[in-house]
Amino acid sequence: MRNLIYLTFILFVGCASTSTGKYYTLNNVAIEGYDLVSYFEKQPIPGNENHSYIYDDTTFLFSSNSNLELFKLNPLKYIPQYGGYCAYAMAQDGKAIKVDPETYEIRNEKLYLFYNQWGNNTLKSWLEESPEDLVTKANSNWKIYLSKNN
Fold it and tell me: Its domain of life (predicted)?
């Protein structure tokens, strides 16, 4: 059954799987403009253009100047794993799939984002399976993805 759900997931987001960038962007802004620092505070909130920063040739938005400054001090602390693409899809088959920025998990002080549309919340699948094993698979697939797309 899980394979059928995942196959349906891939069919619905097939066009998103053709992404080749290092980061998940929409309109040239990373993670649909969400403030990455806010994930590590209470909850994710959108950033705004008044607090933007270009890092690694990608625009990131923040909700406040203080969050922008925190990001500048240690970008790698805040950047989501797998460039902000769906962690579950990266673990399953190395695909760069778009995410719902409000579907996330902080695990071992790292941010993981997930696809959540069409009744398919991949965070639930991630948690039902072995997240530790999935992280290992996703890390391996991410290295392969980067070698092909950088």
Answer: Bacteria
